[in-house]
Specification:
alpha+beta; Alpha-Beta Plaits; five-stranded antiparallel sheet; rod-shaped
Length: 184
Amino acid sequence: MRMTRSKWSVIVLGGVLAIIAAALGTILSGQMRDRSQAEGELTVAEESLTELEGAVALSQQSDLGQRVAAVLAERDSARAYLAQPTDTIMVNEALFNLARQTGVTLDGISASPTIEETLGEVECSALPLSIAVQGTLANILDFLTHLNADLTNGGIETADVTAPRAQGIPTASIELVIYQYEGE
């Protein structure tokens, strides 16, 4: 049985086609494996991104919580300041200016509620204040002198000056009242 040329051509062509089909199958199999691996890596990357976004969100939430707390504290401070009677605000500014001029440090100012009083036959409101200052003895006495002279609508009720003999900073506790006319 002898094969003719045309049969050999068909067998060779079939062999070549089988080799090409095998090569294409191998290439396709490799591509599918690479695609499967890429999909797996993408899934892992998406999960990592989700976890990272969650961590970043928690960090940002904590930071925003701190910012909100700071803003709320500033708001409460502003509300407390604005809730004071306008007289108290003006008096505080005048006291701080006088302290700066005389070289003393204001350690505290507290206002008691305004009360209604009659001076002679005039109805007015009285604003009691307590002030604590510190500085040199000369500066404290200068502060008291200027305060008494400048306070035309009130006066110092008591002043307790403490000047330590040894080391220490002289201090003063001052009680004063500021009057405001409440007429029509």
